[in-house]
Amino acid sequence: MASRVPSRPLTSQVTLAVLALAVCSVAAIAGFGAYAMIHADRDAAATQRTFVANGLREQIEATAQQQESVTLWDDAVTYAKAHDDWWMSENLSVWMHAYYGHDRVYVLDQYNDPVHSMVEGVVVPKAAFEHVAPVLLPLVERLRLLMMQVASGERSDDPKLAVTDIATVAGGPAIVSVMPILPSSDRVEQEPGTEYVHVTVQQIDATLISTIAEHYHLLGARLAPLAATFDTTASMPLIGSDGTILGYLTWDRDRPGLTFIRKTAPALVGSLLAGGALLWFLLRRLRRASAQLERSQNETEFLAFHDTLTGLANRALFDDRLQRAHLSARRGNGKVALLYVDLDRFKHVNDTLGHAAGDELVRQTAARLKSTVRPSDSVARLGGDEFAVVMEGLRDVRTAEDLCEELLAEIARPFELMGNQVHIGASIGIAIGPDPEADHIELLRKADIALYEAKKKGRGRYEVFAGDMDELIARRRLIEAELRTALSENLGLRLVYQPVYAADCVTIAGAEALMRWDHPVHGGLSPIQFIAIAEERGMMEELGTWTLRTACAYAARTDLPWVAVNVSPVQLRESGFADVVADITRACGLAPDRLQIEITEGVLLDNGDGTRRNLARLRAMGVRVALDDFGTGYSSVNYLRRYGIDKLKVDRSFVHMLGKDETSAPIVKAILDLAKALKVRVTIEGVETARQRDIVLALGADELQGYFFAPPVEASELGELLAARAGDRRFRPANRA
Ligand code: C2E
Ligand code: CA
Ligand code: CA
Question: Helix 315-330 vs helix 256-305: angle between axes, to the nearest 10 degrees?
């Protein structure tokens, strides 16, 4: 498994993204709102300034127009020149004030001397003009210059004979308009250059300003003195024609944007809060969902690399770890040991107590392994009842062997499975690395071979892979091939017979057939070796049938009381085995009760129907059943009773100990007593000395077999032995067991 670099957790990633999005959208809305507001306000201000400018211009034009209505008039020329104060007040000044609201009117003669003055509707002394003359006379001069230019034809564009301007009059800005008083018809003579001039002044005061304000809907319009501070976007300078600023018109700025914002603000805040609440709610759900997702992601990841039953690393993770450990060892970080652990009796538990118990056994085994290994070791389940331990950084192999011993002891302790106490063993194969030539897979292969060896050598043990194990395997393969040929060509395989003696030590009770194979290279191979191969490679049935046929044929030809044939558990499990035996005895003409089959204790543990039926049928036929190697296995008295056994063959290891070890004799005695109680005969195998013979005879053995009497001999030799005995007067037919 590639170890994951811890990335920022998904949950906070999602949260950050959503929050960022929310902040961005709020900022975008606010920005857009501000932008729209500023623009709306700026546009409104510009419009207002245009309105005010227009309003002022209209007022100036109106002033001039109103003035023109009285200055272009025959009577005005006449009466002004007559200096008729009353007429002038009625028509040129007070009337202008009353009717149009003009504040000041001055009438000047051709020398620009005042002939009439009016201020605020009151005719005042002519000399009052002196106060305003400095401001007004320049305008009058401009008018006279214009008139001269027109009269002399200097200007051909026929301009309007008027001068209007804004100027400071009586301390405040005012509209000033100057026009010549001209006849409206030919009836009155007007000498050019003698024209009187009409000057009218309209103060830009509250009244005038409110006229403009009303027309253009301005609020708070007023005159601001030069020194005052005010909102420059809501003001307009009053500029005279000479460019001087006389004052400002200001007003309350219309801010539609701001107003809009103010009006919508509560709604906006409300929806923002609602949006925020919604966001918070969604975010919480999102966080929960993504946390859940993260959890299940972790779980999936865990499941992908762990065994569900035990929680141990699975094969994939184990491969990765082993590879790393092997690489690390190659870089010089000590040795690496791979322990391949396999339970010895797992199948038995599964078959007898059920799969639930099997699962429980696997779980408990996993826990025991885990609690026994060092913290730096890793345990994995490779499948079924197979486990592996990887040990890293080892100084020597001894450490691995010590752990194996601990593990074996730990697993040898009884297991409590669904109320049953069960004894399970384990076998362990060890491979030590690093292997400079090969990879970690090779390590696994070697551990597997070592495990196989451990199992073969008798289970409940460990075996370190040795270099020649590879050769052993290759040799086994070769033997397998050669055995097939030997079988198919009936070449090299033969039977030898070891006589079994009655308690009188001279009568041959029968003989056990033992297989021999004259191997072309290895010579006489031990049946122990090649029978295991035959069992493993599926040749045992064929081989067993061959033995049965050969032995039965031989017994039928001779007057051997009976012949015993060793039968492998593999054969016994086959449902047709009893039929095969029946066919063979019939074909050979051998009475079934002259045939004995020797089975091992393990057979009795087999729960399969096949074995039980075969045994029952064989016994019904008359074939005798002997339990071989008795005492080395785990058969209980129960099994013996249930299956019905005719004979026990006490394993030769007991006989071997007789006379050397005090406990052996009582054990053999106990076995004999047990056999008597069960009413079965007892054969003592492996009798090698006269002393052993005497002891077993004293203990009450029924039959004896061993090198002391005779080794396994060729068929012809046994024939001679039989004949010799027959010739011997002492011969009497043996009790058929
Ligand atoms: P087993 O059934 O216990 O056979 C007796 C073995 O003890 C034989 O070894 C025999 O040569 C040996 N033996 C006999 N007397 C003595 C003695 O006094 N001392 C000692 N130390 N050994 C003695 P063998 O022939 O090598 O056979 C070994 C095993 O191979 C047999 O053990 C049997 O389990 C198996 N076997 C042999 N032939 C066959 C066969 O045809 N079929 C099957 N299934 N198994 C066979
Ligand atoms: Ca035997
Ligand atoms: Ca035996």
Answer: 80
